[in-house]
Specification:
The protein is of the alpha+beta class. The protein is 24% helix and 45% strand. The two termini are 33 Å apart.
Length: 182
């Protein structure tokens, strides 16, 4: 991770790569079916609000609904947020064998902005495997005494949630009906 500090914000960059031992088509189908799952119980819904085909690519927009266990001190300041929402936009190119998903938080965006990008592509070293490149930019603003807490919490969350998301995809692929058993 990379840390940038400004007068009213902290910005952290996080990234990860992972190779699935499965073909791109299987991984992408599982990625679209990933939520909800027992590995990421905080994600309670992923609702498609728009889908269209343009220039041979499928564009999809989903609203992701999550719950997030905020530390007690944070909840005292911002209140119990209950359900939090994110905006996920994706484009899928079957001809290029690439799926790109970008998710930005909609909730608490006056305090923290999270911009996450996942790219699923054919592994250049083995066409029967799939490369996942994942990155996030996290920016905490306007609350100097909580910036470190928010930053640490978010980065730890990305590390564990990305690993759990990969487990969910593998579980979906292994289950012949492409449905996770909850």
């Amino acid at each position: 991770t990379l840390l940038i500090v400004g007068p009213w914000f902290i910005m952290r960059f996080w990234s990860s790569t992972f190779v699935f031992d499965y073909p791109w088509e299987q991984v992408v189908q599982a990625a679209y079916r990933k939520y909800p799952n027992p590995y990421n119980p905080g994600v309670v819904a992923a609702d498609v609000v728009e889908r269209r085909v343009c220039y041979g690519k499928i564009f999809t927009k989903r609203i992701i609904a999550t719950t997030w266990n905020l530390p007690f001190l944070v909840m005292k300041i911002v209140g119990d947020c209950g359900m939090l929402h994110g905006n996920e936009q994706s484009w899928l190119s079957r001809s290029e064998k690439v799926l790109v998903l970008r998710t930005k938080n909609m909730s608490l965006s006056n305090l923290i902005t999270i911009d996450e990008k996942l790219t699923y592509s054919v592994n250049p070293d083995n066409p029967n495997m799939t490369l996942l490149e994942q990155s996030a930019t996290i920016r905490v603003m306007g609350i100097p005494f909580l910036q470190g807490t928010f930053e640490d919490m978010t980065v730890k969350s990305f590390d564990s949630n990305s690993a759990n998301g990969r487990l969910a995809i593998i579980d979906i692929i292994k289950n012949k009906n492409n449905v996770i058993r909850i």
